[in-house]
Structures are given as C-alpha cells and as structure tokens.
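Lab meeting, item 3. Inverse folding demo.
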C-alpha cells in the first residue's frame, strides 16, 4: 500500500528562500538617522523609493538632516519616528543603545525592529568587540522590547559608501538574524531594495554577537588596505 493509499497527506514543497515579500509600501524609520550609518541607510533606502523618516533626540536636528538628504525623507523626534514607521532601524551609538530603547518601549511595541548596532571598544591597538550582558546588542534590544519583533541586520556596511551619491550600487551581502522567518524575510527584502545589496538569513538572535563583532575585523581590513570592505556569502 502506498503512502497515498494509507491516507497520509503529502508535504507541501519547501518555500523558496529567495521568495521575498514586497516591502515597497512600508515606511522605514531610522533612529540615529543623523549619524553617519543611519544617515547613509536613510539615503540609500529613500533613493530606492522607500518612504523614510529619520529620528533624533531633537526633532529640529532630524528635520535639518532630512532636508539635506531630500528624496522625500522626513525628520522627527525619536518617539514620533517610531510611531509613524512600520519598520524601525536602530542605528544609535552603542553607548546610548539601552537608554534609547527603554525610552521608546511603548512606541516600538508591535513594530518590526532592525538592530544594526555594533558594540565596539577602541584603544591604541584598534577596534575590538564588546560582549553585552545579554550576549549582543540585538539580544539586549529583544530583552528591552518584549512587545516588538526584533531582528538584526545592516552591521557591515560602509557609511562612506552609503552616503556617496556617486556610488550607484553597494556590492555586499547583509546578514539577517531573527526568530521568525516572516520577519527576517521582510528585512531581507528591504536590503534587496538597495541596488547591489542582498539580504541573507544568518540564524537566530543568539548568533548575533559574532556578526556584530566582525565589524572590528572589517575596520582593521579597511585601515590596512585603505578600503571600504563589505561581505559576500558564497554558494547561496
């Protein structure tokens, strides 16, 4: 007797990992959008046609930065940015990471949060990775934002390349981590909005520390070779 005869139901075909949702109509907020990394991400996403709001502790500073970027980018204080956005990228300095997220717990509830903060220290030998008590910046975000859907991505991007209007595309992969496939798919799709960029699923949040830490190595690469190095994942 075959499995069909016995009444068992055939398994549906596995989902294509490159079948990603359309995110073009979602509003993206960038907390820390007046800093180099946040500003660069805001510029690239807006240039790709995404609706972008940048946030800062001072609304006036965010509005001034948004006006400089153009492309329909808007500025608001951090709370307003979080409330008005569907996806919120956390691009604040590590030193202010916990305090910023604690203050925005209510505004970020129900939101898809993308943490791209790299906990790093610097001394005369160069950059080195810090190990937060929770394990990583992303895991700290998840602990502080129990009502949010926390993912991690956009760690290894050159702020110089992101902000350079003469650079047509950013040839790099973005490692995306998270607990729910639907959420990581959205972040991968958002990364793919930027020409040359690709989002690649890289595990759950417990694996975020080594992804964040790798930035210290890239800083060393860039200093030695006077480059703006990124990453490519082969054979996928």
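The presenter then showed the designed sequence:
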């Amino acid at each position: 007797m075959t499995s069909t005869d016995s009444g068992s139901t055939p398994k549906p075909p596995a989902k294509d990992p490159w079948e990603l949702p359309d995110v073009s109509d979602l509003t993206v907020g960038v907390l820390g959008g007046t800093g180099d990394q946040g500003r660069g991400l805001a510029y690239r996403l807006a240039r790709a046609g995404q609706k972008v709001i940048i946030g800062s502790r001072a609304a006036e500073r965010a509005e001034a930065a948004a006006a400089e970027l153009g492309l329909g980018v808007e500025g608001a204080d951090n709370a307003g940015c979080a409330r008005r956005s569907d996806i919120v990228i956390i691009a604040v300095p590590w030193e202010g990471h916990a305090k910023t997220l604690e203050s925005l717990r209510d505004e970020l509830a129900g939101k898809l949060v993308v943490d791209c903060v790299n906990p790093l220290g610097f001394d005369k030998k160069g950059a080195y990775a810090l190990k937060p008590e929770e394990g990583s910046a992303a895991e700290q975000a998840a602990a502080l934002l129990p009502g949010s859907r926390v993912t991690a991505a956009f760690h290894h991007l050159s702020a110089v390349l992101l902000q350079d209007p003469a650079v047509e595309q950013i040839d790099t992969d973005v490692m995306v981590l998270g607990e729910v496939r639907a959420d990581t798919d959205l972040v991968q799709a958002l990364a793919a909005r930027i020409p040359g960029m690709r989002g690649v699923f890289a595990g759950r949040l417990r694996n975020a520390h080594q992804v964040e830490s790798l930035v210290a190595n890239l800083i060393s690469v860039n200093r030695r070779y006077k480059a703006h190095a990124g990453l490519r994942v082969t054979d996928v």
